């Protein structure tokens, strides 16, 4: 290191000696006062840079550590059902016999898996046309002012806590279903309606973004060809934004699939294979919410619940993957 | 004339769909406010909850919600700010950045019940903190981090590139430029982002029922010693928030006036969310005008 510094000193001194038009600043420095140590050290600015970059990167590391440990912890406990309690994973996914306190042959989650998928799919399928209609209305039909009003209402509805939706479902939807169809009123239909209202604003606001991203030139050229408004919407706008609208629907489905309390309040919480839309049932999330406090850590009933949590986590990863996949296809 | 007829039919259908949605939305907001507001009295806000009789209030739940919100923001803001600065200012466009972004997206799409259960596993059981405010605040931090990070990142990216170039032209380091130029310019957007995410944290319940707990302890509001078990500032005591309270009175159904209590609490929550939503926008606009001396808007 010192050899290198000596070399550098030699070069600097030689340069100073050789310069024909003495530079004001170099001249003032005088060859004897050249501080090689200072020249070779990082400047104050560089230090600040390391400091700032390090500090902000630390925050990133924390977040990544968090994601990894969530997946790790939930995975570890969720897989314990299969590795230390020796539950057959095929049995877990295909049996409807859910009574983990009775031993490892009674851990079948199919009823909850089917219910979770049913409420998610039905609510997203009902919500999608409404959301697209409202989004089209906001971007193509209405005046700017009413579009802005609708947008703030949608934002407000996205922000309403899910327990409030659950409470409304419990006091309005469940009694209504009880009166119309009989039975208790709790069940997939009630959960679907609550989730429909919950995911509607989510899908709507994302669809509005998708429609706004369609270039105006496309709309103008369609109008210039004499197309009616509906022809423009159907053949140009919706085609151009298909992939982003799909992404919006998947986001809505992810929200519906992971929603716990609102669903738990109206689904009835009986782990039974749903035989119709108004029979009490249970989803993965509702079972987790209502049972986690009743089991002891490390026992089979508890581990079985963690397996449900793992399943939820994997589904959320799958939804993420789908969004990425569609996003990539849309770009092509 | 098919095209024109179809156009008219489509228009009619879209208007019908929109009318239905508006009816639903108005019905929801109206129902919450009309059934809840009459019960939302000062007595309700200032008396403690009753465990089996009618006539209880939500004083402790309201305080717990606010306290948890403040703690959560205090913990998550520095981390989210750092992460957002890294992503918008330092990150290069390579696979590492992509991995970071993907993991933040994963975190933001995780169901809140999974985040809550992770908090339960890590803090309540592993670290032996029990059902406590601090466990709840940390679980809410996990839930809040990705949203806050992306809100702040958007605010930072709204600052024009020329501002950064001006800083660098003065010979400032990137870090100095960020702290001295970019952050102040992005402040209105950052504050709006914080308030918006605060609205979500305030109403979150699923992440809390297994971390902050479902029951309150006796709280003494005159005890300022944060280490005393009855102090309202103690972070180790279990705490039930407003949202958890709605869930609990409805699923346990012990108190006879559960519907009234939850209607009033729902109205309270919705009003707070409305205040947060409009407050965020008003705050952002006001700060923007003050800091940039512009008269637009």
UniProtKB/TrEMBL annotation, chain B:
Location relative to the cell: Cell membrane
Keywords in alphabetical order: Cell membrane, Membrane, Transmembrane, Transmembrane helix, Transport
Protein name: Phosphate transport system permease protein PstA
GO terms of molecular function: phosphate transmembrane transporter activity
GO-annotated cellular components: plasma membrane
One GO BP annotation of this record: phosphate ion transmembrane transport
Family under the similarity heading: Belongs to the binding-protein-dependent transport system permease family. CysTW subfamily.
Membrane-spanning ranges: 12-34, 66-87, 99-123, 129-148, 181-202, 260-280
Protein encoded by which gene: pstA
Domain (ABC transmembrane type-1) ranges: 62-280
Pfam families according to UniProt: BPD_transp_1
